[in-house]
Design brief:
mainly beta, seven-stranded antiparallel sheet, about 10% helix, disordered N terminus, binds calcium ion
């Protein structure tokens, strides 16, 4: 376990709240070619109503053959941000960074710095989980009441791009039921954390967003 503090700057940024899902599967070339490209961020109540789940997906549109060799980038920190005071400044962070086939998690904890730069919060609660291989059953690790997963997953996002194009072109007035999932058969690299609500705090509504930050 490396304890070195590294300063990271923003590589990509996606913002969402509990009531909004931002999808961003096709980025500008400079980002799309990188392993810091966030496709989606999800936050929802777990099957256990006492818990909340955070999911960050990166590296979208992976074909099955590309997925087999896909890997998390050891120079990219994924940071879940949680604002419990309504000022859109994070009060807690939960960080994930890979090393040697494992994903290391830190937090949730009060961050030493907010905004564009982050340092790995090595004094926070630490957990590591083996990064699941493609085609392997998902394995999760539990620690301190939390549950963790990292590895390739089928992209859960659904979008009918062809019909979307028809609507934009004025050739259709809406989507079909069922539609055609443009992302069917493609995978993402996924990081999932289930956290007790008591560890998140706040008084009912929180703001949450995820950042992918590259090592400087
Ligand atoms: Ca705040
Ligand atoms: Ca942050």
């Amino acid at each position: 376990m490396k304890k070195t503090k590294i300063i990271l700057g923003i590589g990509a940024l996606a913002i969402a709240s509990f009531f909004m899902v931002a999808a961003d599967h096709i980025d500008a070339p400079a980002v799309a070619s990188g392993t810091a490209d966030i496709t989606d961020f999800y936050a929802f109540q777990a099957e256990d109503p006492n818990n909340v789940v955070f999911v960050a997906n990166v590296q979208g549109l992976l074909s099955p053959s590309a997925t087999a060799s896909a890997a998390f980038d050891e120079n990219v920190l994924i940071e879940f941000n949680i604002d419990t005071t309504g000022d859109n400044v994070e009060d807690l962070v939960l960080q994930a960074i890979p090393r040697d086939g494992r994903m290391y998690f830190f937090g949730p904890t009060i961050p030493g710095s907010v905004g564009v730069d982050s340092a790995i919060e090595t004094n926070a609660t630490q957990t590591s989980v083996a990064i699941s291989a493609y085609g392997e059953a998902a394995t999760a690790t539990t620690n301190a009441g939390m549950k963790f997963f990292a590895g390739p997953r089928d992209d859960p996002f659904f979008m009918d791009f062809a019909q979307y194009g028809e609507i934009i072109a004025g050739n259709a007035t809406g989507f079909n039921s069922p539609g055609v999932d443009t992302f069917k058969g493609t995978n993402v690299m996924s990081i999932v954390v289930e956290v007790p609500k008591t560890m998140v705090g706040g008084s009912g509504t929180i703001n949450t967003w995820v950042e992918a930050k590259t090592k400087q």
